[in-house]
Amino acid sequence: MKPHIKEKLKDLRTSTHKVQLTTGRLKEVPNELKICTGIKYLDLFGNSIHEIPDWFFQFKKLEHLSLKNNSLKTLPIIIFTIENLKYLNLADNQINEINSHYFRNLMSIEKVDISYNQITSISAERITYPKCESLSIKGNKLQKFPTAVSDSHTLEKLDLSENKISLIEDDAFDQLENLIELDLSFNELTYLPTSIGKLKKLKRLNLSGNKISSLPKEFENLTSLEFLDFDSNPIGRVPVEISSQGVSGIINYYLSLGDNVQLFEAKLLIVGQGNVGKTYLMNRLIHNTIPDTHSTEGIEIKTWKIETPTSPDFRVNIWDFGGQEIYHSTHQFFLTNRSLYLLVWEARTDQHLISFDYWLNVIRLLSNNSPIIIVLNKIDERIINIDEKSLKTKFKNIVSFHQVSASTGQNIDLLTAKIGTEINSLPLIGDKLPKVWLEIRTILESLKSNYISADEYLNICNQHGLSNKRALFLSQYFHDLGVFLHFQEDNLLRNILFLKPEWATNAVYKILDSKDVISRNGEFDPNMLDSILDDFERDKRPYIVTLMKKFELCFEVEQNVYLIPELLKPEKLEFDWDYKDNLRFEYHYDFMPAGIMARFIVRTRNLIYDKTFWKNGVIIQRENTRALITTDQYSRKLFIWINGNNASFLLEIIRKELNDIHQSLNYSDVPEKIPCNCSECINSMSPHLFNYTFVKRVGTENIFKTIPCEISATGVNVHKLLGLYKIDSQEPDNNPMYSLDKILNDLIEVGSRILERKFQKKIEDLVNDDIVDLLRTKGHNISDQTRSGLSGSGKGAGELDIMIRMNNGIPITIIECFRLESCGSKNSVVAEHLTKLLSKYDTHELKRKFIVVFGEAERFDNLWTNYIQYIKDLNSNNDYGEKYPLSGFSVRDDLHSFANMKVGISRHDNNGESVEVVHVMLNMK
To answer: Where is the Roc domain (predicted)?
Structure first.
């Protein structure tokens, strides 16, 4: 017995409730424990105890018992006399047998861990009335799924990993309807029973390290699944483009696999300044010819078949990008993990170092470090030597340098061989794909059209045996692979499948390159598109504009008038700004990508103050606080000046938008700087700048409370400095932005803005997007979780689940939006949405949630009257259920004075607690 254990034993009293005697070299349970008759918690981990004494029965109040890592060889029967025991840990012992009677007693304890013992089998007798919620039999020697747990309907977590299980009975999961986590990893399973489809509440499933080669079709019934691990199974890995779709996409992939083929395909992106011979090079590689001289406008895509070590017919999709800087912001939408870059420059250019630095940084950001082959073209005219070693040291994704002449064909064969080697070694080459997927792709690629409607696409998939659900998973895969474009999350773009991505993007580039648009400093309207896009169908032009908005290239400044911020005048506008007593913040870029300010302007368009913005700057305002944000491409800096009472909160809004932009560019580590506030720096235009991350670290981890200023050489109080950048209160009750009443008032104001705009949307009613945008302009931290579906009429977009969170990510409330034409007693749409809002979407039991109804009835007053009655009759509505019974409903005409807006609040009981749902109905007819 170790000395510290002896000391603990001396301190024991009759009133002692918690005892920890861990790693004490105990060979038996100390007799000194006898006096602790009121003990509730006992931890004997890491000793050498081999039996439990008979006097253990007196621990009537014991709830938590750990005997982990001891020397028990048999199950200690005496513990079953302790009626209040809720947690039992017998892991890491030498128990080799558990008969049915004692297993029944084990399952009467809420949480049991008997992992890492020597258990070879458990009696086949089923346990009918267990209490167990969590059971771990991990790391034993079971050869079949223990039938005894099959009726354990209380089980929520079951861990059977690291056994030798090869057999699971067909009905093993029939009664495990409450199971949330199941771990069967590292067993000998070759199949799964169909009853696994009964686990409707299952969220986490680990099947890695087995011998499973196929899945039962019932697998698609696991609609709650959030995590699925299939690593190291014969069924094979999931293509990364599929895994990015989440669990449902992975399941769809495996269930579709069947007759499959391997995918040997990759993308080759040719980039560089204009007129360096990129198109020449592409044609020389593919056809061993050169084209007529022309400059690529936008993107040109070609298919090239080459022989590689793994395939004699490897498909290379070559994307020749135009050299214009404004195009670069769209590159990220066409990148995949199967991408290789060719950076082309010409031998006669003396500005090669500047060119290299710019393009290599662009590729580093946009491609997430895809491999790069640098090609020196036009060596028949002139050769320039470059410092290859230094470049490879700085940009480690450079794989080789080649000197060629696309015009004469010199050294093209060596470049081709290198491309074949590198492209063959890209990740995920050779993934298995369902054969029917490639058959559908072949049909789509054979179509002469540049696009087809989503309905046409679904019809083609239906003819090949794919349901609409599986077809949409497939189009998402095609989209992520860069073969076709289908933006399913956008209300308008989801209706079209771009078969030729270059058709859509080149239309965007035609607008960007238009002399008329450039002369108007980026402003355009639908009438201008008649001449700019004269060779594009009129009814498809709205899709092009929406695509530009998707790329964050433009926004709507007024009805049907759009603006491209990147084409604004670079000259700073004239305005008055008091720089004194501002909250200041800066970003210092090692490399400053093009378009950051343009994208920021698009994102904050509804906050712009008095139309004050130009190419390199903008002024935004929230309530009584204004911010001036500017960029300087030459110094590679972004400056933020904020004046007003809520400066720190507005700064958080600005930082969130900029950080989102940085994340999209794989540039998440941009240094943030804050100015010193010592007496010499506080009013200086050129103060000393501290690294914000470092200052925060000093403030939280370091005993020193000051940090030296390099200008004044005096110590600056860290907490006082950081206090300028903190929102006054992090508590939801004290922060007005976290107030549910504040959110209600803001939502009513947003509703009024929606009513003002409802006739402006000539193409399609995009009110969902407006709600998100307008709430963000009010300063709310919005998580937009758009779901696909149909309205009650079956005509329009279905629903929008918006979550408002605190800055630390904690949810405050949820807003559910949907359309409604009528609301009779047989209506099921309202009940379904209300049920999802109260239960499915809300994992935090939020006290107040919101529903926004877009009323589309001829008589709005009748719709509201019927809606009120419908809500009041919820308790007798079979579509609503019984979980959240209605306890009351009140109409709140006092909250506004708009005839086209109605507000009511329903109250629902939740196990004695009251939950409120605010119903806001807008007349959209």
So the answer is: 259-426
